[in-house]
Specification:
Layout lengths: L12 H8 L9 H7 L3 E5 L2 H4 L19 H7 L3 E6 L9 H19 L4 E3 L3 H9 L3 E8 L8 H9 L2 E5 L27 H13 L2 E3 L5 H10 L5 E2 L16 H10 L2 E4 L3 H4 L1 H22 L6 H14 L7 H15 L4 E3 L19 H10 L4 H29 L1
Parallel strand pairs: 1-2, 2-4, 3-4, 4-5, 5-6, 7-8, 8-9
Helix pairs in contact: 1-16, 2-15, 7-8, 12-13
Length: about 400
């Protein structure tokens, strides 16, 4: 089905909504709405596969191998994807920067090699134009402030190469910001942001790079809101009131993001959205630990090879899953607390071992749209959640950068 946005670039949800209200049968068709909406996801960890010369993004793969490839993204109606530039903690000797640049190059090369199907997008307008041309809009976010190695110059380099958000921390503290951790909350080191951390936020505002607060400690979150002049992004975080996990956001935080004009992109990971599933996943991981430890014991193993080998183990021993209804509960709650203008999709494709039932890979995305409609959310709200909210925040960051450029 042809996307309506291919002929009405920039009209946003209003034009799409008018065309999506009814199908030929006179009733709203969830699949038609999903296909015609502009669907954007802000977090996928598929990037290491792009560096593997034997892996073909344009070929169809199994859900056990990766959650994403171009054929399945087309089938699932996903129009735009932010690829995560990530690697684990490094020693600060330049290695994190080198590896980040290699990941960035892999994303850029994917678009260069397939210009008829993939377009690198660095602005909201370029994203819309890529989708209107029938191409996948390919974007980037750097997941972890450790990859700037305490240098504002690296923010500028990453931005020049197309990166449009920086997650301030990952699962560990940086020298300038405290992390929420993942499996447990680490002891605070800075009490939030240091002075340099505030400089990082201000420089991101100047560049038009979205400040991502997923993975940060609560104190860091509040310091960001004190510092930023632009709407913030939580690229892959869910709701603490539904599942009390430190990676999730409290109701107070959800309301604060809304007041800031930002957006919370809901994470799909079963272990974050469902505490019962989290316990089962932990027990399953303990059983598989000897196999994973054997992989990590090789000091010469590259990160991308570890990812591929880990995926193989996970496919052979599937992890427990949360019900799709639990994920929908998180969307319901975020929409109720933050409002329909401040919620979006932050799946965490290929960065997690367990997706909810029915969302084993990207082809399941229409089921999410159908579920939101079945729960009584209006077509306008669903269209905003699927992508328009994120585009608004991108545009707002671009405007702030323009305003700051004029003020200097």
């Amino acid at each position: 089905m042809q996307r309506l946005l291919r002929t009405i670039i920039g009209l946003g949800s209003v034009g799409c909504l008018a065309a999506c209200q009814t199908s030929t049968r006179g009733a709203l068709d969830p699949l038609e709405l999903h296909q015609r909406a502009l669907v954007v996801d802000t977090h996928a960890d598929t990037t290491p596969f792009f560096q593997d010369p034997e892996w073909d993004f344009l070929a169809r793969h199994s859900a056990g191998e990766t959650h994403l490839d171009l054929p399945r993204m087309r089938e699932g109606g996903l129009d735009a994807q932010f690829w995560s530039i990530y690697m684990p903690r490094r020693d600060g000797d330049g290695r994190a920067i080198r590896e980040a640049l290699q990941r960035i190059d892999a994303v850029r090369e994917l678009a260069r090699r397939h210009p008829d199907q993939i377009a690198l997008a660095t602005s909201a307008r370029e994203l819309r134009e890529a989708v209107a041309a029938g191409k996948l809009a390919s974007l980037m976010g750097v997941e972890g402030g450790h990859m700037i190695e305490n240098q504002l110059s690296m923010l500028r380099v990453y931005h020049a190469l197309g990166v449009r958000y920086l997650t301030l921390t990952h699962s560990f503290h940086t020298d300038w910001a405290d992390s929420s951790g993942t499996t447990s909350v680490p002891k605070p080191e800075h009490g939030g942001l240091t002075d340099f951390g505030r400089e990082v936020v201000r420089e991101m505002n100047r560049l038009g790079m979205m400040v991502d607060v997923s993975h940060v400690a609560d104190a860091t979150f509040w310091d960001v809101l004190e510092t930023t002049r632009a709407p913030i992004l939580a690229s892959h975080s869910s709701c603490r009131s539904i599942a009390a996990h430190p990676r999730n956001m409290s109701d107070e935080m959800l309301r604060a993001v809304a007041a800031n004009g930002g957006v919370v992109m809901i994470n799909f990971y079963s272990g974050y959205i469902d505490l019962e599933a989290n316990a089962a996943i932990k027990a399953h991981a303990e059983r598989l630990a000897p196999q994973f430890n054997e992989l990590r014991a090789n000091p010469n193993a590259e990160f991308r090879s570890l990812v591929r080998a880990s995926k193989k183990i996970s496919a052979q021993h599937p992890y427990p899953q949360a019900p799709l209804d639990v994920l929908l509960d998180h969307f319901d709650h975020a929409i109720a607390v933050a409002g329909p203008n401040h919620v979006g999709l932050g799946s965490d494709w290929d960065g997690i071992p367990s997706m909810p039932q029915g969302l084993e890979d990207v082809t399941g995305l229409p089921a999410l749209t159908a579920g939101l409609l079945e729960r009584g959310h209006s077509p306008d709200t669903v269209i905003r959640v699927l992508g328009e909210n994120l585009l608004r925040v991108m545009q707002a960051n671009e405007r702030v950068a323009q305003e700051l450029a004029v003020s200097f």
